[in-house]
TrEMBL record:
Name of protein: Uncharacterized protein
Gene Ontology terms: biological process: porphyrin-containing compound biosynthetic process
Gene Ontology molecular function: any one: 4 iron, 4 sulfur cluster binding
Superkingdom field: Eukaryota
UniProt source species: Minutocellus polymorphus
């Protein structure tokens, strides 16, 4: 059973001194993959090359075509733009499906709840239009997970921190269900 193996691996690796820092990543303290860390940070920049790859530059995501035929056409189109000087390659400018604030919020929720650090509810309150209502919707979305001990909320009145974290391993096991419920609650705001 996959859930049993996930729980077993999590427990075993922790007894050997590994931390479970992402939903599917473990490392000894101070030895986390720097390559993976960038994907979990809000507004980070990375370049990805290849079929179906996605880059993030200046808060905008750029996806490459997902089929080989479309990818070859895309590469040839980029080559023509560079060689003729007519138009900018599409990896240098935002395309029509730039992330808007809602897309960024969705991405942050989805990625941060899959990390040991968790989701900063103050970021939602302070960096988003209608932030306090959205933070409350997130809390409604995780209410059952909190009741079932699959998630925890950590508030610190001294420094104002307010984080929501999924518990290891069971919160991570049910992360798709929990995150989906958060999105349902956020959709109710619209």
């Amino acid at each position: 059973d996959c859930a049993y193996m996930y729980r077993y691996a999590s427990g075993y690796l922790q007894t050997k001194g590994y931390e479970h820092y992402e939903i599917s990543s473990y490392a000894q303290p101070g030895r986390r993959s720097k390559h993976n860390q960038i994907y979990w940070e809000v507004g980070s920049t990375w370049y990805a090359i290849g079929l179906g790859a996605t880059s993030s530059v200046g808060g905008n995501r750029f996806a490459r075509p997902r089929t080989m035929a479309d990818y070859i056409d895309w590469v040839l189109d980029q080559r023509v733009k560079v060689e003729t000087g007519k138009g900018s390659p599409s990896w240098l400018k935002a395309d029509d499906d730039d992330e808007d604030d809602e897309d960024l919020l969705t991405d942050v929720i989805m990625t941060k709840l899959r990390t040991q650090e968790g989701l900063d509810l103050n970021w939602i309150r302070n960096e988003n239009i209608n932030g306090p209502a959205k933070a409350n919707a997130v809390l409604r979305g995780v209410e059952l997970a909190l009741d079932m001990d699959l998630a925890k909320r950590e508030q610190n009145d001294d420094n104002g921190c307010d984080f929501l974290r999924l518990k290891d391993p069971d919160g991570f096991l049910f992360s798709n269900n929990i995150i989906s419920q958060v999105f349902v609650e956020l959709d109710e705001l619209e």
